[in-house]
Design a protein that fits this description.
single chain, about 325 residues, alpha/beta, twelve-stranded mixed β-sheet, two-stranded antiparallel sheet
């Protein structure tokens, strides 16, 4: 395995996220579909989806550039019937993980584990069936809970629950924190709502208040280098409760807060692959898409190098903060 490539801002690229499909059996009201917008099509496979051979060829090539981790996303990646094959053929040098809505984990989690999958993130935005249905526009609440159980039984622990925090889910944050604190094998990732991708700024809430609350109740606060994140280890949501004797008895809660956060962007080490074979250096941008053409090995190498060379921190460079605290587009990137 070679050395990681580095962009002009000194950020090494060590991870890739690959969207296996833009199809999904949910219709979440906050969905941004890996930054591409709500482009989901019919449930049947489409001709533009990367094949298993193309995905594996891409992974074999970028392994030459020190890529250590791959996360398979969608849409809903488990709509791919060849998912187990893709995981099995992922280079041994890479840790493979999956982001899923969890509805298909029962019956497939064990096979995915045997294929080499290391862990899963499961989207779960509420512990209330009615609110879950309102957010996801699906009736799959029980299937998601069962899928989480199946992942734990298959040894895919810790299972990280993804919860987008916005107007519709904010009242359920405390219950979700209690849920992961009380159950071994679960972690929680609270994801800041991104109005710039979804177009509904009125749904936004102040994620700083969630940070403050977690800081008050946490037994321990850990700083994570990636994206300069904080991890909160919580054994009880009661601020007066004594801390757990053993940190392992606490639940881990992490906040992903990229909005207007230059520190987050300065610590980004990912390149993304769209379901139809384009590379992009930033979730928030679609003006940096680069086609890998016919996906020959040299085409992949050249495009990967180009995308890394052109990576720009979204906040702090692509968007810059003005003296009055507003963010405006850096015109030097408009025609780049």
């Amino acid at each position: 395995m070679g050395e990681p490539l580095e962009d002009e801002f000194g950020r090494e690229v060590t991870e890739v996220r690959i969207s296996l499909t833009d199809r999904c059996n949910f219709d979440c009201i906050y969905c941004h579909n890996e930054g591409l917008g709500d482009t989901r099509g019919p449930m049947e496979p489409t001709d533009d989806e990367l094949t298993a051979d193309e995905i594996v060829r891409f992974l074999e090539v970028v392994a030459e550039f020190g890529i250590e981790k791959v996360k398979f996303t969608g849409g809903e990646p488990m709509l791919r019937r060849d998912l187990e094959e893709i995981v099995r053929r992922t280079p041994d040098s890479m840790e493979a993980s999956l982001t899923t809505n969890g509805t298909f984990l029962r019956g497939r989690a064990e096979a995915l584990k045997k294929a080499g999958l290391s862990r899963v993130n499961v989207s779960q935005d509420a512990l209330d069936p009615e609110e879950f249905a309102a957010v996801t526009e699906s009736g799959a609440y029980e299937s998601v809970l069962d899928g989480v159980d199946a992942a734990l039984e298959a040894g895919l622990a810790p299972v990280k629950l993804n919860m987008v925090v916005f107007e519709h889910t904010a009242d359920y944050v405390e219950g979700m924190v209690e849920h992961v604190a009380d159950r071994e094998g679960l972690q929680l990732q609270l994801i800041e709502y991104m109005p710039e991708l979804t177009g509904r700024p009125e749904w936004n809430i102040d994620i700083g208040r969630v940070h403050d609350w977690l800081g008050e109740i946490a037994d321990t606060v850990e700083h994570r280098k990636m994206h300069n994140r904080r991890r909160y280890w919580v054994s009880s949501t009661d601020p007066d409760a004594p801390p757990a004797d053993d940190p392992a008895d606490s639940g881990m809660v992490e906040i992903v807060d990229p909005v207007e956060n230059p520190t987050f962007c300065a610590n980004c080490h990912r390149v993304r692959v769209t379901h139809d074979g384009y590379l992009k250096g930033c979730l928030n941008r679609n003006d940096d898409l680069r086609s890998m053409g016919e996906l020959g090995r040299e085409e992949i190498r050249e495009t990967f190098r180009e995308v890394v060379d052109n990576r720009v921190p979204f906040y702090g460079e692509y968007f810059v903060e003005t003296d009055d605290g507003e963010w405006e587009l850096n015109e030097s990137y408009v025609d780049a």
